[in-house]
């Protein structure tokens, strides 16, 4: 067996891993966007050229030179004899799936139905991007007419609305049956790999995260993706059940089930994340803490409340929905956010809202003239259901509403009365700023809050510095203490750290069992 860490080796994010057996059959583990590497060359208004995107990324060494790419984007070949059976996508965060649109559509994408739903909602509520493209129409080589119009002959161009354009039809596979209503072709997971293979959900900050285990030659190989742990005592489990409900408790226990299923797999090679082993954190919040802290803020104000969290983190949405229900407030979503809910419950009925939950959900009617695909469908669905809310209705009863509005949504609050915004509460329930660009965004965002005299929680400015207090955020990654406990109990034969800045942390504890090379042969 050969393990190739193509990206994500000594950095956080951008995971791209290949596993190959002795017969040159293999599979890929994630194909994410490496944000730090990307930021060295690109930014919001400087991007690779769509018509030469694979050429550009290959030349900048942002993607590996493997025969895994769409033939409508790249017609070259490399000296690479590996037959790729599938690409496993551990969860729907861009640092793990952000370049999946480049992958040959004939290579099946293996993921949970929840991950597919989140990815599809993300793609179809935003502008088209080749990097994340799941379906649609293939690009084509420049035609004679294109050449006459000055387009260079080595570029690929969009087919536009041509009815004769070839469709980009993805092959997808799931660990359990999923009903789809798009152009994807569903492939039985049991046919993907010649040996034993299983996918088990784990607990992370996006619903649908999962780990994988496969028998490769004479070894078991497991990949955790990103994960965190849930309640550790019977008392904690009882609290989750009584306060957050049965579905949320079951979600929080997913990680323990994944590792339990690995205990009898020997010999075992574990590819494991180590995001937090270099972070010094004084706060170890869980979703229970987020719920309790939010309850205190809600009970302390009669003003409008604005909450900010990544909508892909649907568990956090359910937390704030529960808080709203306890405080007789309506949770007001943007149309794109409602699209996530609708898509998730379509693919995974487990997350379908109950009638009571649905009675507390509203959809804001923003001042937009253009809506994208599922975003438009969600808006029209909300109108049909009678839950589409105008700014005037919020102005009349701000104390009855909680708006989900983050940095990019704040222009829409300009339709609300200043008397409503004056003294409103904003809760920052997402991660802190990690890059210089994010710091700039946070400072700009504070200008909005100051201008309207909105009271912030979870973020504040101290002597010109932005401070994230984190009481409304729970990390999606396992703590160092939790990770050490899991690995000691599992006792894998080999440990391959990825998604970490400090692989030495693993060596200090498990010495020669830790494999740090980019290419590992066993």
Protein traits:
eight-stranded mixed β-sheet; alpha/beta; globular; 2 domains; 18 helices; Metallo-beta-lactamase, Chain A; Rossmann fold
Helix-strand blueprint:
Elements: E1 2-7, E2 16-20, E3 25-31, H1 35-39, H2 53-59, E4 83-88, H3 94-97, E5 109-110, H4 113-123, E6 140-141, H5 144-148, E7 156-157, E8 171-173, E9 185-186, E10 197-201, E11 210-216, E12 219-223, H6 234-243, H7 246-252, H8 254-260, E13 268-273, H9 287-299, E14 305-308, H10 314-326, E15 330-333, H11 335-347, H12 355-358, E16 361-364, H13 374-385, E17 388-389, H14 391-396, E18 401-404, H15 418-421, E19 425-428, H16 436-451, E20 455-457, E21 459-462, E22 465-468, H17 480-490, E23 494-498, H18 504-510, E24 519-521
Parallel strand pairs: 3-4, 4-5, 5-8, 8-9, 12-13, 13-23, 14-18, 14-19, 15-16, 15-18, 16-17, 19-20
Antiparallel strand pairs: 1-2, 1-24, 2-3, 6-7, 10-11, 11-12, 21-22
Characterize the overall form: globular
In total, how many beta strands?
24
Question: What's the Cα radius of gyration?
Answer: 24 Å
Mean pLDDT figure = 93
Count up the helices: 18
What distance separates the N and C termini?
A: 5 Å
The CATH homologous superfamily of the largest domain is called Ribonuclease Z/Hydroxyacylglutathione hydrolase-like
Q: What top-tier CATH class of the largest domain fits best? A: Alpha Beta
Oligomer kind? single chain
Q: What is CATH's topology name of the largest domain?
A: Metallo-beta-lactamase, Chain A
Unreliable parts = none
Give me the side-by-side strand order of the main sheet. Answer: 9-8-5-4-3-2-1-24
Percentage of residues assigned to helices: 25-40%
Structural class: alpha/beta
CATH architecture of the largest domain: 4-Layer Sandwich
The portion of residues forming beta strands comes to 15-25%
Keywords: Hydrolase
GO molecular function, one term: hydrolase activity
Protein name: Hydrolase of the metallo-beta-lactamase superfamily-like protein
């Amino acid at each position: 067996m050969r393990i190739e860490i193509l990206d994500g080796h000594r950095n956080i994010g951008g995971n791209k891993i290949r596993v190959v057996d002795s017969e040159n059959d293999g599979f890929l583990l994630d194909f994410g966007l490496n944000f730090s590497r990307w930021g060295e060359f690109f930014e919001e208004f400087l991007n690779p050229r769509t018509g030469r995107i694979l050429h550009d990324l290959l030349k900048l060494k942002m993607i590996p030179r493997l025969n895994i790419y769409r033939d409508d984007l790249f017609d070259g070949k490399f000296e690479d004899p590996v037959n790729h059976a599938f690409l496993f996508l551990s969860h729907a965060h861009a640092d793990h799936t952000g370049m999946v649109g480049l992958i040959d559509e004939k290579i099946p994408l293996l993921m949970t139905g929840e991950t597919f739903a989140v990815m599809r909602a993300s793609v179809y509520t935003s502008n088209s991007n080749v990097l994340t493209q799941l379906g649609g129409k293939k690009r084509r080589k420049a035609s004679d007419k294109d050449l006459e119009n000055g387009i260079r002959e080595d570029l690929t161009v969009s087919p536009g609305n041509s009815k004769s354009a070839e469709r980009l039809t993805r092959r997808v596979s799931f660990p359990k049956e999923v009903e789809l209503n798009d152009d994807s072709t569903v492939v039985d997971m049991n046919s993907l790999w010649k040996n034993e293979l299983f996918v088990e959900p784990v607990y992370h900050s996006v619903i649908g995260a999962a780990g994988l285990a496969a028998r490769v030659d004479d070894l078991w190989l497991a990949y955790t993706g990103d994960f965190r742990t849930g309640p550790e005592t019977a008392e904690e489990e009882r609290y989750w059940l009584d306060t957050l409900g049965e579905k949320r408790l079951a979600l929080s226990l997913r990680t323990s089930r994944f590792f339990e299923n690995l205990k009898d797999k020997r010999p075992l090679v574990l590819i494991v994340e180590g995001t937090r082993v270099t972070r010094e954190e004084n706060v170890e919040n869980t979703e229970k803490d987020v719920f309790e802290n939010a309850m205190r803020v809600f009970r302390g104000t009669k003003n409008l409340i604005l909450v900010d969290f990544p909508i892909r983190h649907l568990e956090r949405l359910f937390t704030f929905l529960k808080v709203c229900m306890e405080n007789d407030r309506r949770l007001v979503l943007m149309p794109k956010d409602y699209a996530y809910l609708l898509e998730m419950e379509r693919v995974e009925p487990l997350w379908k809202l109950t009638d009571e939950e649905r009675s507390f959900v509203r959809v804001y009617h923003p001042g937009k003239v253009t809506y994208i695909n599922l975003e438009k469908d969600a808006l029209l669905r909300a109108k049909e259901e009678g839950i589409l809310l105008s700014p005037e209705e919020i102005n009349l009863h701000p104390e009855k509403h909680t708006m989900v509005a983050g940095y990019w949504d704040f222009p829409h609050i300009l339709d609300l009365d200043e008397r409503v915004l004056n003294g409103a509460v904003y809760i920052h329930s997402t991660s802190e700023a990690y890059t210089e660009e994010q710091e700039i965004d946070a400072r700009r965002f504070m200008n909005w809050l100051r201008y309207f005299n909105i009271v912030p929680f979870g973020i504040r400015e101290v002597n010109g510095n932005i401070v994230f207090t984190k009481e409304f955020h729970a990390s999606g990654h396992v703590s160092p203490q939790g990770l050490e406990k899991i690995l000691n109990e599992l006792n894998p034969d080999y440990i391959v750290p990825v998604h970490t800045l400090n692989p030495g942390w693993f060596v200090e504890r498990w010495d020669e069992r830790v494999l740090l090379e980019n290419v590992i042969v066993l």
